[in-house]
Amino acid sequence: MTAPSLPREVISAFGALPAPIGKRLFQVRDLIFAIAAADDNVGRLTETLKWGEPAYLTDETGSGSTIRLGRLKDSDHAAILFNCKTTLVDTFRERFPDQFEYRQTRALLLPVAGKLPKQALSVCLSLALTYHLDRWGKRAR
Q1: The organism sits in which domain of life (predicted)?
Q2: Alpha-carbon distance values, 21 to 1, 28, 83, 92 (Å)
Q3: pLDDT tens digit string along 76-100?
Q4: Fewer CB atoms inside 10 A, N or C side of the chain?
């Protein structure tokens, strides 16, 4: 499955990022849509802006927690941002302590160069896209 075409406002948000960060986050966007398409529990994603950054919501099913793509002011890394009130980043840190750099309970940081760590990142994104299912006990892990 290929990602859908970008909404105009999301194109502008990606365009406002430094090119290497934008390119890396486009790869993450493709992965988000591929993971969502492969899991019937997730449903169609809503792609919009939250705080001026591309955001991915599971509005159709309510299965997951919002994923935002952007950058942190003090970093040259691409940032995947999560709701800080969830346990997602703590779970990622526990599962992949050396694979990624993290910021508090809200961000997973990716270097802009090198190979995208698709396998580990796919696990993290899948956990975010199904966060509420796991909490509601609707799916066994």
Answers
A1: Bacteria
A2: 23, 11, 21, 21
A3: 999 999 999 999 999 999 999 999 9
A4: C
**Residue whose pair of structure tokens reads 């960060």 in the numeric block:** 21
Question: Which tens digit of pLDDT belongs to each residue from 33-48?
Answer: 999 999 999 999 999 9
How far is Cα 61 from Cα 85, in angstroms, rounded to an integer? 20
pLDDT at 140: 40
Q: Which parts of the chain register pLDDT below 70?
A: 1-2, 134-141
